[in-house]
Write the structure tokens for this entry.
Amino acid sequence: MPYLIEPMRTKDIPEVIDIERESFSMTWPANSYKRELEENRMAHYVVLRYEAGAGEQPFPRKARDPRPFPLSLLPSLDRERSTQQDPPVIGYGGLWMMVDEAHVTSIAVRPEFRGKGMGQLVMLALFDVAVTRDARWMTLEVRVTNKGAQALYKKLGFRDAGIRPRYYTDNNEDAVIMWSEDLRSAGFRERYTKLKAELSRRFQWSVKP
Ligand SMILES: CC(C)(COP(=O)(O)OP(=O)(O)OC[C@H]1O[C@@H](n2cnc3c(N)ncnc32)[C@H](O)[C@@H]1OP(=O)(O)O)[C@@H](O)C(=O)NCCC(=O)NCCS
């Protein structure tokens, strides 16, 4: 299967940070992902990998070493292991489970892979995480100017539910608060099944628990 979704692990962090830098004007502090994965029991993150097919040029792994110079000159066993074994990460997403609400904290796809259904695939994986953990709703914040992401969420059944004024501290931009349908409703189940079928027609992917 060329596309694989699996839980994010510590060794994936350099690649994830690289995608984050290409995707957001405001990035998380360097050690945030490590803390999320190792200490935050509410947090669940996934990565999407892409393995080039036979005769296809492999997608270059672009992870930069997050350690400051001169530490970045030292070899890192985790990075090497990741490079040798796993196909490159091309997208990721995560959420916090808070009682029966799943709060999406982040989602991004490498620019080269956008507009091909990868964002929907990552969201599908996050729905899986939320439903498996018995969440009833999914919610998120998105910049008012980020019309592309809003279109993705609307396609997946999210609706606007208000504004958080000056939520983003880099430019004081407002956030739109969005909520999913009831994840236990027949309407959501139907949308979810249709989306899964549509994505399966478009490309081959698998999920590793
Ligand atoms: C938002 C993001 C994850 C979407 O990923 P993607 O792989 O491009 O999304 P998909 O190809 O699955 O798009 C699904 C749907 O979203 C909508 N959409 C996505 N990007 C869009 C854009 N730039 N303009 C308009 N609609 C867009 C479309 O409705 C599309 O459905 P369609 O292909 O049937 O028209 C990606 O653009 C990204 O990483 N952006 C930077 C980070 C970011 O903004 N994250 C969201 C923070 S809240």
DSSP finds six helices and eight strands in the chain. The chain has a mean pLDDT of 91. The beta strands are 3-7, 43-50, 89-98, 101-109, 137-143, 159-168, 173-179, 205-207.
